[in-house]
Amino acid sequence: MGSSAFPSWWGSFQIPEGSCGRWEIGPFFMWIQRNAEDWTVMRQRHKDPFRDHWDVEIPADPPCPASGKDEAPASPADWAGKVPHDEVGASPPDPPQRYAALEGSGTVHITPAHADRPVVITPEQSFFLPPKRTVHLFVSLPLWLQFRDEPDGVPMIDDALFRPSDTWHGPNTQVGQVCYASRTRAAFAPIGRLPHRIVTPFEVRNRSEKDVKVERIKLPTPHLSVLVDEQGGLWTEAVIFEQPPGVDPPDVRIEPGTTNGSQKLEVLSGPRTRMEKKFVWHAFGDFFGNGW
Amino acid sequence: MNEILSSINLHQVFTPDRVAAISKALIVLVVGFTLARFGTSAIGRAIETRAGGPETLVLRRLVRYTLYSLVIATAAHQLGFNLGVLLGAAGVLTVALGFASQTSASNLISGLFLIAERPFVVGDVVTVESVTGEVLSIDLLSTKIRTFNNLFVRVPNEQIIKSNVTNLTRFPIRRVDIQIGVAYKEDMTRVERLLKEIASENPLAMEEPAPLLIFQGFGDSALLYQFSVWGQTSKFLDLRNSIQRDLKRVFDEEGIEIPFPHRSLYTGSITDPFPIRIVSEDSQAVAEPPGGVTPPDRSPEHAG
């Protein structure tokens, strides 16, 4: 089980040699088997992006097929037999992958992480923000999973728990940035949780003299940390979007203290990349508009 | 031989003035080449910080050979050569060489234009006429391309300047266009909804720019659509393969028919149906077609 104070799918887990662990995190399934010299990992995905269930089972039952150092990696067909058959909508498993293991280590470190590119969120229904007004919103963002066999090592696996679609954010098709797309309700109050998503509170401040239409927002996810509250809920820092007076593009700021109330938060994983200074993260002209 | 050597008086050949001129010329050459080398490096660094890319190499060479030419001309002047005569001779020689190497000169000038215009850089994937591949180098006379089946193609720069060049990797995103036909019996609204769902479920297909669906018209055998989705240029082939695989799978699951070309033959509204006769293995008629049409007699005595 995880090393956290509450049951969770992240943390450090002991997998004795010859044993196998199974992770089920929303639509993501993963099996990790410890062999004499390597780790064999297989992943599979469910088609429902809102599947609300998580479980960690070590040793997994039924066990993963043996894949010792003298044996070839188990074939996807062998592994597929271990995937729950009642899971309607599960895609075929990815081919198993082998990673050379750290000598003597039987511990895996599973960490939640943010997307490796910014996420463009699109509210299901866009809204207007009148002048001189501020709105607080909550969105849930897709999470990535990192697997290491030493605490500060380079991740062997760095994969989305549910891979969002690509999207483009820029003024035209020549200039811009490839991002991930996430459709959201952009709720005005804290939202329900899913095991494979993280909640980002953010604020939109309109200091200009005209309405701001919020129909698409690019969130600087690689600059955000993964925080956990006392109930095991995952949060990021708060993100502030501020539309200044005039025609300047909005500024984006990451608030170190999150806005989830008075709960105590612990950092699970830091940002993938650091912001160089406080106000640097400008996008292409229009943060809130259609962006291109 | 000895007589010839004895007739040459070394004192007459190497007079003090001539020795001094040769010494000066040598000093000019040594110092000049050294300075030219340092000068080329300094100018090259300056160009590199401002320009970068393949033109840096060309400009460095141009600067180096210009400086070397100046040094040689100065050394020749020290030796007492008349530069006016030399330049005149060089001009005549240049004209002669120009006539003899028109193609090379054309390629050379095209190469300079190509380097200045930069329609592509090393590493881009381009299509030049019928050749598609990765640009390995852009040189003064030709551009080297590696095709996807690992062939080395040398394309003269003049040909590149004259023909259409398509750079497939200039922009980070690209559109996949799929032409598809569905049977006339299908509900067009349902087909269009399914196509949009296929795009939204494929993570490589971008949400923005949004997928495009164009009804192309009523074809001979099918309702014709163009289904276009955007994706990352670096994952173009993955997207093109996966989206067509998804399309076939979903159409099969939903019972949407992708028809093959077929023809319906009519003989006109007032004509009788085509006569049909079922022939057994021994070529004897066993049944007559409905409608009471008598099949044409194919008995041996009527045939031919």
Your description of this structure?
The complex is a heterodimer of chains A (292) and B (304). Chain A has 292 residues and is mainly beta. Chain A folds into two domains: 17-105, no CATH class; 113-143 and 162-288, no CATH class. Helix content of chain A is 2%, strand content 39%. Chain A has one helix at residues 76-80, and strands at 11-14, 20-25, 28-34, 38-45, 54-57, 97-100, 107-113, 119-123, 127-129, 133-142, 144-148, 157-160, 166-169, 177-184, 197-206, 212-214, 217-219, 226-228, 234-235, 238-243, 251-255, 266-269. Chain A has a five-stranded antiparallel sheet, with no helix packed on it. In chain A, strands 1-7-11-12 form a four-stranded antiparallel sheet, with no helix packed on it. In chain A, β18 and β19 (234-235) form a beta hairpin. Chain A is elongated, with a radius of gyration of 21 Å. In chain A, 37% of the residues are buried. Chain B has 304 residues and is an alpha+beta fold. Chain B has three domains: 13-100, Helix Hairpins (Orthogonal Bundle); 118-167, SH3 type barrels; 173-254, Alpha-Beta Plaits. Helix content of chain B is 47%, strand content 19%. Chain B has nine helices and ten strands. Chain B has helices at residues 2-7, 10-13, 16-50, 54-78, 83-100, 102-117, 157-162, 188-201, 236-254, and strands at residues 125-128, 131-138, 142-147, 152-156, 165-167, 173-182, 212-218, 223-232, 278-279, 285-287. Chain B has a five-stranded antiparallel sheet. A three-stranded antiparallel sheet of chain B has the order 6-8-7, covered by helices on one side. In chain B, a hairpin with a 4-residue loop joins β7 and β8 (223-232). In chain B, α8 crosses α9 (236-254). Chain B is elongated and about 120 Å long. The termini of chain B are far apart. Mean pLDDT of chain B is 84; it is low at 285-304. Chain A binds chain B through residues 47, 120, 122, 163-169, 173-174, 176, 178, 181, 216, 290-292, and chain B through 171-173, 200-209, 230-232.
